[in-house]
Design a protein that fits this description.
The chain is α+β, with helices and mostly antiparallel strands and about 850 residues long. About 25% of the residues lie in helices and about 25% in strands. Helix 1 (about 20-45) crosses helix 2, helix 1 crosses helix 3 and helix 4 packs parallel to helix 5 (about 140-145). InterPro entries: Glyco_hydro/deAcase_b/a-brl, Glyco_hydro_38_N, Glyco_hydro_38_N_sf. This is Glycosyl hydrolases family 38 N-terminal domain-containing protein.
Length: about 850
């Protein structure tokens, strides 16, 4: 028998909020590093020879960062000494993230970790992650940029699965740049604990009134023998090609486990008895990859996205995710308005980043959140998790305000002249609607807004003197004045809000037209000399022809420039209709019904309900846009309203879904139908934008990866030659493709390209996990979507997606008092 080697890698898995309060977890990990230093000090002093060979890996740089912030100078010196010697290793990942994480922030944290380890005379080029079940394709290039050449994934197949249809194998993961990172596609992050190397482990279950005896140790060692030889026998049966295998382990089987050197006692005992057959060696992360790269192995290369099976957690906390996404958009505006970080306090920016990164960390709540939703600790940790989104949003909003102040933003003032500055923060020309909010106490040329919305104010471009097309509507702040503006890249323009000249139009009751009755209802069909482009039956603009069916809602959207239909011909649900699912647990309990769902987020017994249209109202019809309200009834909700704002001079529709979700302890899903395409589906490709990368679902993916759902950034785009339909999902990043029925789960393979043509749904809410998801989805929500038609002859899909990003982030309008020199210009 050829000698084989089992490599053990010892770490403590960071799961921030799953086992204790978030700040307590930080305190634990600081002390875990202190414990490791103590173990190594004793070993170096010759006090514990039985622990010879002990090593520890900091699973991520966050642990190190927490330690350095609390450690004494003496502790820092000891830590750095053992890092230099290779007894303490550092993974260059910052935390185990969901795909909410912003790529710019992620890049910064990889860079921070790399900057720290550069002081040592050792090579640090490896990163690991534990528990989570996938990573955006963008990880590859961000890691490579920051010196990471090796990546160890030890995921958890609970409601998830590893890629490539097999684990415990290496592959090169190629990024969109063409650079590659060597990945070890590993097993569970505590699989090494199954081998019972540490004496008196809780897994051995050998409890006795006399404690752990030598006889118990011998019995446990016999189990170790059976499991290790059995493990390698299984590998051989599965045609495993290597004579070595790495596994991760912790001090004990729990998340946020304290470290332990006692595993060395079992390792030494094993090697003395069975080491000629299977040698066991404790190694660090970086050392393992040095060993792996020294071997002449035939390692395949794969490219594409690695969708996270645990991405669905974002839909269990829709209110917090909405705050996070708003903060993320503000963060991107901050980086555009102040790219060098000179206009505001960089410490404040870092504080906002830290809060947002903690919200994007993969732990969604306490482990008993479903079985004990009333528990004080469950609700405490849920509130603390939400606080990261709240504080991140608060701080980045304040940081943006600091920057806008340098652009001349004025505070509220009585009797201020109504000048405003409009800023295009983007690096390309933008034509869009800008917005001025006028509060109830503010005046325009000494007049209040109470008398009329129409024909009261106008917006003047101070540079040209042109009156810009505008429209006034109600808002929670008072009145909203929207106006169309065209701005060059990074251009700033001053506008003036003034009272419009009163033309004393005759009262509408005297109009001599057949289409206006005494009750002011316009319900006459178009006839020669009269056009009726806006009604509860449809809207026709310069770009779009939208038809409304009185039973289901939007039945057709035509691009008037090409005649193309934008709704998929196989759509089962009209755009933005709600679909609600609930699974009864009358024969079980809220925990167990969820635990058996596996990778399918529903059961054959799941009941599905589709929203029913009960009314359509026309809310506004102005020079810039028309607004329609579609009222639906939907099981699981008290309100499900769809508000359509159809732009008249741009190929754009803004959609707001207002809903009141009722409470249920049962597993639930709420979807929003997005059945879009561009013309013929067979000629249209869908692309997803996600964490800094763009890929085609079902095509640009690792083999064996998740095709059931995806977490996106700004949204999805449907491309048919040089025509593009971008579907923006501002608040709800999770989407699913295809049938909503319970079915066998399809993994990415040669045939999964068909997935690319399937119907898209926004997965707005769910609470299906049996652990650490927030079970109560109830409350009032406002979820924003948008459709943008983008005609772009560029072959690179990046350009139309960039244009859509700019529309999503918008332009900025601030109250502004021009100086005398500026006034002279207009």
């Amino acid at each position: 028998m050829t000698q084989k080697t089992l490599y053990l890698i010892h770490h403590s898995h960071t799961d921030i909020g799953y086992t204790d309060r978030q700040e307590k977890i930080s305190r634990h990990h600081v002390n875990y590093i202190r414990q490791v230093i103590h173990f190594l000090n004793d070993l170096e002093a010759g006090k514990t020879p039985q622990w010879e060979g002990y090593k520890y890996v900091c699973e991520n740089y966050w642990q190190v960062e927490q330690f350095l912030a609390q450690a004494t100078d003496e502790e820092k010196t000891a830590f750095e000494k053992y890092v230099e010697k290779g007894f303490i290793d550092i993974s260059l990942t910052y935390l185990n993230f969901t795909e909410l994480v912003d790529p710019v922030m992620l890049d910064k944290k990889f860079a921070t970790a790399k900057d720290y380890v550069n002081q040592f005379n050792r090579k640090f080029d490896s990163a690991m992650t534990a528990d989570i079940n996938g990573f955006s394709w963008g990880y590859v290039d961000i890691m490579y940029k920051n010196g990471v050449r090796n990546f160890f994934s030890c995921l958890h197949t609970h409601h998830g699965m590893f890629p490539l249809f097999k684990k415990q194998l290496p592959f090169y993961w190629e990024g969109q740049s063409g650079e590659k990172v060597l990945v070890w596609n590993g097993d569970h992050y505590q699989i090494g604990n199954d081998f019972l190397f540490a004496p008196n482990t809780d897994q051995s279950k050998q409890y006795d009134i006399n404690g752990f005896t030598e006889k118990d140790w011998e019995d446990q060692f016999e189990v170790t023998k059976q499991r290790i030889f059995g493990y390698f026998d299984l590998l051989e049966e599965e045609n495993y090609p290597f004579d070595f295998c790495p596994v991760m382990m912790s001090g004990i089987v729990t998340d946020n486990s304290p470290p332990s050197p006692r595993m060395m006692e079992g390792i030494h005992r094993w090697n003395k008895v069975y080491g000629d057959d299977i040698k066991v060696e404790l190694v660090t992360l970086n050392h393992f990859f040095e060993i792996l790269r020294s071997k002449e192995l035939d390692i395949p290369t794969y490219y594409g996205d690695w969708p996270d099976w645990w991405a669905d957690g974002v839909s269990s906390t829709p209110a917090g995710v909405k705050l996070y996404r708003d903060a993320q958009r503000k963060y991107r505006l901050v980086n555009k308005l102040d790219p060098k970080g000179l206009k505001a306090n960089p410490t404040q920016l870092k504080e906002a980043e830290d809060h947002l990164l903690m919200y994007a960390e993969h732990t969604w709540g306490f482990h008993s959140s479903v079985s004990e939703p009333w528990d004080a600790f469950v609700n405490l940790l849920d509130t603390r998790k939400l606080s990261y989104a709240i504080n991140g949003n608060r701080i980045i909003s304040n940081h943006l305000d600091d920057i806008l102040e340098t652009y001349g933003e004025e505070a509220n003032q009585l009797d201020r002249e109504n000048f405003y500055k409009v800023i295009n923060p983007h690096d390309e020309q933008v034509t869009t609607l800008a917005t001025i909010y006028v509060q109830h106490w503010q005046t325009v040329d000494d007049s209040y807004f109470y008398t009329s919305l129409d024909n009261f104010v106008e917006v003047v471009d101070c540079q040209t003197g042109d009156v810009l097309t505008s429209q006034v509507s109600d808002s929670s702040r008072g009145k909203k004045v929207s106006f169309n503006i065209n701005l060059a890249a990074n251009e700033e323009r001053i506008v003036h809000l003034r009272r419009r000249e009163n033309k004393n139009n005759m009262n509408a009751k005297y109009y001599n037209h057949a289409h206006i009755g005494a009750e002011q209802v316009k319900d006459i069909a178009p006839y020669e000399g009269y056009n009726h482009p806006v009604s509860i039956y449809g809207v026709k603009t310069d770009h779009l022809d939208i038809t409304l069916d009185q039973h289901k809602g939007i039945s057709s959207i035509i691009d008037l420039k090409t005649g193309a239909q934008l709704i998929h011909p196989d759509a089962l649900h009209a755009p933005f209709m709600g679909v609600y699912e609930v699974t009864s647990f009358k024969d079980s309990n809220p925990y167990s019904i969820r635990s058996i769902m596996g990778r399918n987020r529903k059961a054959p017994s799941t009941k599905r309900y589709t929203s029913k249209l009960v009314n359509i109202k026309q809310l506004a019809d102005g020079p810039l846009f028309a607004v329609l309200l579609l009222k639906y009834e939907l099981e699981g909700t008290g309100i499900y309203d769809v508000i359509l704002t159809v732009h008249k001079h741009a190929p754009q529709i803004d959609i707001t879904i207002r809903l009141q979700k009722t409470c249920s302890w049962a597993p639930e899903n709420l979807y929003v139908a997005l059945p879009f395409t561009y013309g013929q589906p067979e000629k249209t490709d869908s692309f997803f934008e996600k964490s800094g990368t763009i890929f085609r679902p079902g095509i640009d993916q690792l083999p064996g990866s998740n095709t059931s759902f995806y977490s996106l950034d700004n949204g999805a785009i449907f491309k048919n030659q040089d025509k593009h339909l971008f579907v923006s999902m501002k608040d709800t990043p999770l989407v699913t493709l295809g049938s909503l029925d319970s079915q066998l789960v399809e993994l990415s393979c040669e045939n999964s390209h068909e997935k690319n043509k399937e119907i898209l749904y926004s997965w707005a809410m769910n609470n299906f996990w049996e652990t650490n998801f927030k079970v109560d989805l109830s409350g009032f929500y406002e979820l924003d979507y948008a459709l943008y038609l983008i005609r772009d002859k560029e072959k690179d899909i990046k350009h139309p997606i960039q244009s859509a990003r700019h529309l999503i982030e918008g332009v900025i309008t601030i109250p502004y008092n021009p100086n005398d020199n500026e006034k002279m210009l207009f």
